[in-house]
Amino acid sequence: MSEPILRTEALTKRFDGVVATDDVSISVPRGELRCIIGPNGAGKSTLFALLCGIQRPDAGRVLLKGEDVTRLLAFQRVRRGIGLTFQTNRAFHRLSVRQNLSAVLQISRADRPADADERYRFALDRFGLDAESEMPAKELPHHRLQWLEIAMVLAAGPDIVLLDEPTAGMSIDETLQTGAVLKHLNASGLTIVVVEHDVAFVRDVAQRITVVHQGRVFAEGTVDEITEHADVRRIYLGQA
Amino acid sequence: MDSFATVISVLYQFATNGAFLLLSALGLIVILGMMNIINLAHGELMMMGAYTASIAWHRGVPFWLCAILAFVVVGLFGALLERTIIRRFYGRELGALVVTWGISLILSQGALAVFGPFLPAIPIPGGSVAVGQYSFSVYWLTNIGLACLLIIGLWALYNHTTFGLQARAAMQNAAMARALGVDTGRIYTLTFSLGAGLAGFSGALFAPTVSIAPFMGQQFVAPAFITVVVGGATNVITGAVGSSLLLSLVKTPVGFLLGAFVGTVALLLAALVIIRLMPDGVSAVIQRRIDRRNRFA
Amino acid sequence: MPRLLSLLSGPEDVGRSRWFWAAFVAVCIVLFVSPLWQSEFEATNNAYYLLNVPTALGLALLWGYCGILSFGQVAYFGIAGYVYGIVAGNMVGDSAGPIVGSLCGLAVCAIVSAIFGYFVFYGRVQNWIVPILTLVLSLLLETFLGQTAGYQWRVGTVQLGGYNGMTGIPAFQIGSYVITGYSFFYFVLIIVLVIYLALRLLVNSRHGKVMLAIREDAIRTELLGYDIRARQLVVFVIAAILAGVSGLLYVQWGNYITPSQVGLLQASLPVIWVAVGGRESLLAVLLSTCALNWLNYTLSSEGYQYALIIIGALLVVVMLFFPSGIVVTLAREVPKHGWRALLGWGDGAGK
């Protein structure tokens, strides 16, 4: 039984008395496409921040590829193969597309997986991004800007990516296209964890779903198991 | 008896240093807490206050009135500055820093050109009080008292007036405050004006201790900035008080043993260490404790 | 070699075309032959304008390319100058004195800035703290140096001199050839050119690209796998060393240094040069530094006491109306829209 690529043990984070992440233990096997869903304010973004190192937990551990990375800084974790896109797009808006991408490519990663470049170029191609474009990123349409950030993260050659609401603000077609690209990347071996609200998107791409509510893991299962889950429907309709 | 006087003397030194830091920095902190801007013309505003006091005093105005006059004059000037220049730099912190530096250049060089190299000095008001073998200056005792009064006054302003409520709302979330009908533009002007007025007031207060010259603000700039850096921008009151007390704890023994200048150097070193441990300043740490207690209240 | 050339001509500074380089070379040639019609006094003045350029370029690198504003670059100017004065002054007669002094000066700059930078960047403090604390360091240095009058304040045989400063600083010499007058002008010119070109290489290199990213969004850059703290620290030290170079050149120019060189007024000047020229372009900063120094000198020497008021007002105006800097704004807007649009005439005027 191979080690899951990402695992947490009793991860807890408090902000001034509010428990944002409450005793969360999740386990993501290598190569899975996991969706994390939950009502707003459930603590999904905080969880991501804890996983990639922007925030330090008050208790618990984060294990990446079996290694305890809880004490490691964000950039050290990224070098060990994890990537993240933010809920609010954080590509370099004032820089051109070319500058955005070349900034990432400066990493000389001897330990870059062989298919990193492949995945990156595939994303560029399928997302229709011109790596030499001098257009300032902020002039891109919103969905292209989201795709740019995903491509940037892929260029770093991660083994697992955390995507925080990548399809927010996208049209149905754009959402479908994003889903198709993610599924293809996942099929090539990239582990993907996506926070999403779009039910159709989740149904389309997820292999497994984790439901988060009030900072805790509320439920976990396949798409069918979760959609049948009476309690999940309840928390979304606000009767928790 | 002797040791009692010594204790009082040490406390006096501590309070004097704390009051000096607090009075030097208060105007800066008010502005920083509200608009996240460091006003680099702060030293020159203090200079303006001192100049106002000197001119008024030498026309026979009693010292306490000079200080209040300085508050008003520099406060009005601050309002003018805010309306014309400062307000274009909200959201551009570094730009605001640079432009206020330009303003400080204009003010100090302008003062030199208009008033010449010196203004007539003001003698230190009040006498001294003796306890045991030590004597304490009434002037500094008053300053300590004024520092406390100002803090209490600011606290009352922020927590018990409509302006204070609106100001706190604007500090937390300006867009939301505007949506709720708060005239943030007016709040910012009033806040900057208050900060400038406090700088002028402090400048007038300290005028008797320095030579009143165009670049006199410089000597207050270093301690004021250090106090602000250690205090942080989270909360005006706790930042000002916490920082002054903490830094005075450093400065008093060091200054006593090794002299005033080494004391100020120690402040810088202390600030470097403190921000390594508390990057958002003392006010942020205190605020977290308060929030935590409120949650469980 | 071709790679070097393409790096030089990379996109991260104003001026890339062949016309630009032709003009650049032409100007360099003019400068090199200028002593033919310039008196030694004028050449030395020109050298003075030029010797401030490294400080400004360092600040441009730090602020314009990396997003870190430092108000205290002059501290390193002063440190290098004083350390050189102390070391070379104690080694008078020894022909290696100036070189050892220079190396010591730069080394102390590097060490001080590294320690300072460690506390600031590894503490991950908020943006506005760096300019404040760097300024404080400079002010404290000035205060310290100002009270070093008196015979007890000396290192070896060299007195620090209090507010009057250190005088009789030995000139730089290579072997027994003393650099002064025209040779000093060439000395400064060559150093400035080398530094400019080297920095141009740097900002177009891999490291330059990452610097830009850090400037734009430090957290995002960190989450791409870069140790931003270390990179910020390195740039900070480089900028300090560059300011130190200016300081070394300054004490050659005047053979003296005073505490006012690290005071509030002097500290404001690099910020003004960089802001007026345009911090995101090395070339703009080079031009504005020379121009503003010339302006300052001309105004002051005419007995015009309002020189600094004018410069302060210039800073305020630039920050209000030309936030990217005058040279940079011109370089960007004129090719796009022409001169008329810049002045607001014609339709389709720029932003």
Question: Quick summary of this structure?
Answer:
The complex is a heterotrimer of chains A (240), B (297) and C (351). Chain B is mainly alpha-helical.
Low-confidence stretches of chain C: 345-351
The quaternary state of the protein chains shown equals heterotrimer
CA distance, first residue to last residue of chain C: 40 Å
End-to-end separation of chain B in angstroms reads 45 Å
SS class of chain B:
mainly alpha
Overall helicity of chain B: over 70%
The tally of domains of chain B stands at 1
The secondary-structure element order of chain C is HHHHHHHEEEEHHHHHHHH
Any overview of this molecule?
- Chain A is of the alpha/beta class and 240 residues long.
- Chain A has one domain (6-236): P-loop containing nucleotide triphosphate hydrolases (Rossmann fold), CATH 3.40.50.
- Chain A is built from nine helices and eleven strands.
- In chain A, the strands form two sheets. A six-stranded mixed sheet of chain A has the order 7-8-9-4-10-11, with helices on both faces.
- The longest helix of chain A is centred in the last third of the chain and has 16 residues, at 172-187.
- Chain B is an all-alpha fold and 297 residues long.
- Chain B has helices at residues 2-35, 42-57, 63-84, 93-115, 138-160, 162-172, 174-179, 184-206, 218-231, 236-258, 260-277, 281-296; strands at residues 128-131, 134-137.
- Chain C is mostly helical and 351 residues long.
- Chain C has one domain (2-263).
- Helices cover 69% and strands 2% of the residues of chain C.
- In chain C, strands 1-2 form a two-stranded antiparallel sheet. Chain C has a two-stranded antiparallel ribbon with strand order 3-4.
- Chain B binds chain C through residues 36, 38, 85, 88-89, 92-95, 97-99, 101-106, 109-110, 112-113, 215, 218, 221-222, 225-226, 228-229, 233, 261, 264-265, 268, 271-273, 275-277, 279-280, and chain C through 63, 69, 71, 116, 119-120, 122-129, 131-133, 135-137, 139-140, 143-144, 147, 263-265, 268, 271-272, 275, 305-306, 308-309, 311-316, 319-320, 323.
Note the main attributes of this structure.
heterotrimer; B: 297 residues; mainly alpha; two-stranded antiparallel sheet; 12 helices; 77% helix; 3% strand; C: 351 residues; 15 helices; disordered C terminus
